[in-house]
Design goal:
The protein has 331 residues and is of the alpha/beta class. The chain is 47% helix and 12% strand. It has helices spanning 12-21, 33-42, 54-59, 76-88, 103-114, 131-134, 144-149, 151-157, 191-218, 235-243, 251-262, 278-289, 294-306, 312-325, and strands spanning 2-6, 25-29, 48-50, 67-70, 94-97, 119-126, 137-141, 183-187. Strands 3-2-1-4-5-6-7-8 form an 8-stranded mixed β-sheet, sandwiched between helices. Strand 5, helix 5 (103-114) and strand 6 (119-126) form a beta-alpha-beta unit. The chain is elongated, with a radius of gyration of 22 Å. The two termini are 42 Å apart.
């Protein structure tokens, strides 16, 4: 299939390259000419074409049904892009937002674009800077017709079954087999980003638990404790041993172990931890639904506090965020 990819940052460029490796043709554009050239150079030979702007992206898309994937920062930049492509695309074309957009904006945009006959798909995309080789876990929403049409694209981006054991009981006809491949149709427009939003809220809580646990262990040799109760523990070794058969083993722990192997004190991190919005939105949704989420709320508020008073726990959080997404600390 042919698809336009707009926004070639940490994830957008890799999405374009991965699609080219799976036989798809990509028309790529970024306001940075360097990013555009880099993506074309990294893609499979003859499978990527550079565009000079939004109109050029659309003009280079051939075939009966044009597809454009936006991989831009959530907010005004994406909003403007949606409105611009809404003017350039036509009946039965498909516009995809693969960023971290607020799901209520998806619902509004889908309704607006449907009046012009354009299908809007929201794709919650997880995989960070590692997605090029590992693949991307995707949760998407929109019309079933459009979702089925872009299935070959999503299938190419997904990680596949890999070596993860089959979950017992998944032979039911009520369960979507695509979930085992790492991508899932969640429902109407907005549902994909809603599921990804909650995913990120959970991520906040998991990261915070790891961070606090390592902080407790790091502080066990504090002079505030009786001398016979102090332990000088090696954080890198603890992170490594937990990776081997522990019930808390995970990719987040893998990234923590990797960071600590280089420097157990995580000296290069200040511990000023940013939040990209999804944690706040998850808590807002919980309030609307009268659902208690004390762990996620505490994790978000800790990130707020980290920007004025940092501990080893916040350095662990920073190290994990840099590991999976290349996120830099808030200045």
């Amino acid at each position: 299939m042919q698809i336009g990819i707009v926004g070639l940052g940490r994830m957008g460029g890799n999405i374009a390259v991965r699609l080219s490796r799976h036989g798809h043709d990509v028309v790529v554009y970024d306001r940075s000419e360097e990013a555009t050239s880099k993506t074309v150079g990294a893609a499979e030979k003859g499978k990527a074409v550079a565009a000079s702007g939004y109109e050029d992206v659309v003009s280079k898309l051939s075939g009966g049904r044009r597809i454009v994937w936006l991989m831009l920062p959530a907010g005004e930049i994406t909003e403007v892009a949606v409105q611009e492509f809404g003017k350039l695309l036509g009946k039965d074309d498909i516009l995809i937002d693969g960023g971290n957009t607020y799901y209520k904006d998806d619902i509004r945009r889908a309704a607006e674009l449907s009046e012009r006959g354009i299908h809007y798909i929201d794709v919650g995309t997880s995989g960070g800077v590692w997605g090029l080789d590992r693949g991307y876990c995707m949760m998407f929403g929109g019309t079933k017709d459009a979702a089925e049409h872009i299935d070959p694209i999503l299938s190419a981006l997904a990680p596949g079954k890999g070596d993860i054991p089959v979950t017992p009981g998944r032979d039911s006809s009520d369960l979507d087999p695509r979930a085992e491949q790492g991508y899932l149709y969640c429902g109407p427009a907005g549902s994909g980003h809603f599921v990804k939003m909650v995913h990120n809220g959970i991520e906040y809580g998991m990261m915070q638990a790891f961070a606090e646990g390592f902080d407790v262990m790091k502080s066990k040799d504090s002079p505030l404790l009786p001398e016979d109760q102090r332990f000088s523990l090696n954080m890198a070794d603890i992170a490594e041993v937990w990776r081997r058969g522990s019930v808390v083993s995970s990719w987040l722990l893998d990234l923590t172990a990797q960071a600590m192997a280089s420097d157990g004190d995580l000296a290069k991190f200040s511990g000023k931890v940013s939040d990209s919005g999804e944690g706040r939105w998850t808590i807002e949704a919980a309030i609307e639904e009268d659902v208690p989420v004390p762990v996620m709320t505490a994790a978000l508020f800790t990130r707020f506090r980290s920007r004025t008073d940092n501990t080893y726990a916040e350095k662990v959080l920073s190290a994990m965020r840099f590991g999976f997404g290349g996120h830099l600390e808030k200045k």
